[in-house]
Amino acid sequence: MGLGLPRAWLVGLPTPVVYGSLALFTSVLHNVFLLYYVDTFVSVYKINRTAFWIGETVFLLWNSLNDPLFGWLSDRQFLSSRPRSGTGLSSQAVVLARVQALGRHGPLLALSFLAFWVPWAPAGLQFLLCLCLYDGFLTLVDLHHHALLADLALSARGRTHLNFCCSVFSAAGSLSVFASYAFWNKEDFSSFRTFCVALAAGSALGFLGATQLLRRRVEAAGRDMGCSALAWDGGLRREELLFGGEEAGSITLGQYLRQLARHQNFLWFVGMDLVQVFHCHFNSNFFPLFLEYLLSDHISLSTGSFLLGISYVAPHLNNLYFLPLCRRWGVYSVVRALFLLKLGLSLLMLVAGPDRPGLLCFFIASNRVFTEGTCKLLTLVVTDLVDEDLVLNHRKQAASALLFGMVALVTKPGQTFAPLLGTWLLCFYTGHDLFQQPPVIPVGSTQPWPEPPASAPARASTLRQGCFYLLVLVPITCALLQLLTWSQFTLHGRRLHMVKAQRQSLAQVQTLDIKTV
């Protein structure tokens, strides 16, 4: 009786809430990973520079290639060029397969997260293996989670509602960043390790519970489409058949890539998104450096820590406002407005100069918040590209995971370009080499802010000016490039409505054909 009420409450949760909760179980781990994995291996495990760069180089290759690889392995059975008489998979089975994959890979992601915080091999080898294992399972989780967004809902309203729930839970998961400060201690690592074990255990149990609930919803939808929470906008059809396998005339990867090369909106989108990924990671990589060299004399350490923590939470909260705007005005218009806002704020900061501490604080934080928030909205654009790909190539079922993987293949190199280009520009304009100087003290550390060398005030002034120009010129350049490429993107307005209508009609025609037979 005691367990009956909580169980009934969990079973009664709306499907978007269950779907969104999966973002919580990913973000509680990933935000801590992003903040601490480099500092752990550099400061705690004492990895040498050569092993670090080898690990990052291999990680770059693996990080770029595993998205399309896993997407192809997941969706190749759906890429049939002609139907085959006989049995097939229903769209219900496709969703079930993705949910079951999340139930398997989510706990494995939590286990690979734990591998970072316990030394079990030479530092260089552990760094390489941990990065590749963690990113592999993270890719599998992200691909299936994002693919479900395209498979569970077809309408823009339905998808923005699902994304809204993801933003709420991602914001809640980002609170792990604040909690981690109480446990982070390089000299006594045991408390932080215990904290990470608790995070991983909670995440693994959450994945198991949420996927079980979602699986029951999908199975219930197959039994009674009229009462299904998944059928609220036509995202799941019981009778719709999918024909897979080589016997069905499935296309090869080369044929799929040629089809994608003719998909103009896909090409314009990945060009814009490559710049967006670069800018997101540039902000993350250089956030502590900007705080140190531009604001260390004007703000306290606790204020800097607060700015860093809030920059992880605010993008998700920001989307709670932007997603309703997307439903009203369309994702294309909202994203374009965010690019214009980024350009306007950067130009304002450039005119104001580096001697406005209050404005600098606002700009550094808002620049990261709006840039990260835009990344969250672009998932909705990829789901529209999934629809257009299905309609243009007359597919039997949308290759959701594969298209998300192909987007990642082109855009993820921006993660590596950001620190490389940023450090090169800083050295070019100021002569300051980060690898030959004392390391930047991370925000949240108990150590005091480093003071500029008293014997070189001119050099400190040059470094400060160079950091300022790096802070404002990078977003100005990114915004201009993105406005140019985004203006060529045509999947919005009337064309988007036509694509949505054609996908709906294709599904209805398939259903009518099956009933006739």
From TrEMBL:
<dbReference type="InterPro" id="IPR036259">
    <property type="entry name" value="MFS_trans_sf"/>
</dbReference>
<keyword id="KW-1133">Transmembrane helix</keyword>
<feature type="transmembrane region" description="Helical">
    <location>
        <begin position="50"/>
        <end position="65"/>
    </location>
</feature>
<feature type="transmembrane region" description="Helical">
    <location>
        <begin position="266"/>
        <end position="287"/>
    </location>
</feature>
<feature type="transmembrane region" description="Helical">
    <location>
        <begin position="329"/>
        <end position="352"/>
    </location>
</feature>
<dbReference type="GO" id="GO:0005886">
    <property type="term" value="C:plasma membrane"/>
</dbReference>
<keyword id="KW-0472">Membrane</keyword>
<dbReference type="Pfam" id="PF13347">
    <property type="entry name" value="MFS_2"/>
</dbReference>
<feature type="transmembrane region" description="Helical">
    <location>
        <begin position="299"/>
        <end position="317"/>
    </location>
</feature>
<keyword id="KW-0812">Transmembrane</keyword>
<feature type="transmembrane region" description="Helical">
    <location>
        <begin position="17"/>
        <end position="38"/>
    </location>
</feature>
<dbReference type="InterPro" id="IPR040035">
    <property type="entry name" value="TMEM180"/>
</dbReference>
<feature type="transmembrane region" description="Helical">
    <location>
        <begin position="162"/>
        <end position="184"/>
    </location>
</feature>
<protein>
    <submittedName>
        <fullName>Transmembrane protein 180 isoform X1</fullName>
    </submittedName>
</protein>
<feature type="transmembrane region" description="Helical">
    <location>
        <begin position="190"/>
        <end position="210"/>
    </location>
</feature>
<feature type="transmembrane region" description="Helical">
    <location>
        <begin position="468"/>
        <end position="486"/>
    </location>
</feature>
<feature type="transmembrane region" description="Helical">
    <location>
        <begin position="117"/>
        <end position="141"/>
    </location>
</feature>
